[in-house]
Design brief:
It is built from eight helices and nine strands. With 283 residues, it is α+β, with helices and mostly antiparallel strands. It holds the Pfam family DUF229.
């Protein structure tokens, strides 16, 4: 079934249960069992991480939110915490046995999402094998490192290309150059995540034995860079990936200082470019 047709079917299904009022007294959960497992993207580090981060959405009845605000607050808190399907199971058990919370006394694994899970929870705490752990570390990178400098230059080039797409904007906004690199970080994943190749088929219901590829020099690196541009001294933060020698800039670039009146010449006509524009040409 084409993706467009499948999306229409899902939309029709969700709309029907909404229109029928089923969600007035139902906790509705939509989830996947894993992310994409095939395709070219899956061979990248990001693809490996996304495979370990399946979709999960929970919709609560409005009456539940009014009656149990503390539980809702805990659930929202836990959207920023690493969780597992066993936590979802514990949540269902909590609902069935409320006000008792079996995850605090009866269950050997899993914590109800209506309870508070510590923000510093690790894969080890959640009993997630290291080769399935999607957590990463951000390690400081010397701002003099070539990759830090090239990343900042590529982001500045990308900003200038966005400004150059429209002739009016290109005429009014100054071309930006990198004035100073402020900070840089490298994203580092677990060696076992990088080298994981699959699970050797087990016997019966066992998961089998994980298999790993020989460790080699990574063909992909991820960086975050914070830098200042001129004119205007805008401070930007962006993510850049180095894949097989090519620097690829993330579409989301943050301007983290106030731009004030700097983009006034295009603030009405091109508001989406305000954070990038320094008006200084033909005003």
């Amino acid at each position: 079934m084409p993706l467009g047709e499948a999306a229409k079917d899902f939309y029709a299904f969700f709309k029907s249960i909404w229109d029928s009022g089923f969600l007035n007294d139902t906790m509705f959960v939509v989830m996947g069992d894993h992310g994409a497992r095939t395709g070219e993207f899956r061979s990248t580090i990001q693809g490996k991480l996304e495979e370990r981060l399946p979709f999960l959405s929970i919709v609560l009845p409005a009456s539940f939110r009014v009656r149990y605000p503390e539980l809702v607050k805990n659930l929202e808190h836990n959207t920023k915490v690493i969780i597992t399907p066993l936590d979802l199971h514990a949540t269902f058990m909590h609902v069935l046995k409320y006000p008792a919370d079996p995850s605090k006394s009866q269950l050997t694994r899993g914590t109800s999402l209506f309870s508070t899970i510590p923000r510093n929870r690790t894969c080890q705490d959640a009993l997630i094998p290291e080769y399935f752990c999607p957590c990463v570390q951000w390690l400081p990178l010397n701002i003099a490192h070539a990759h830090a400098r090239i990343s900042a230059l590529r982001v500045a080039d990308h900003i200038n290309s966005l400004l150059a797409e429209d002739s009016t904007v290109n005429r009014l906004c100054e071309k930006l150059t990198v004035d100073k690199i402020i900070n840089a970080w490298q994203e580092v994943t677990s060696v076992k995540v990088r080298t994981f190749s699959g699970i050797q088929k087990g016997i019966g219901l066992g998961f089998g034995k994980p298999e790993f590829q020989p460790s080699s020099s990574p063909s992909e690196c991820s960086y975050q860079v914070k830098f200042r541009t001129k004119p205007g001294y805008g401070i930007f933060e962006a993510s850049v990936k180095l894949i097989e020698g090519h620097f690829i800039v993330s579409e989301h670039i943050s301007r983290i200082n106030i731009y004030g009146s700097q983009p006034d010449c295009i603030k009405t006509s091109h508001p989406h470019l305000r954070k990038f524009c320094y008006c200084g040409r033909e005003n």
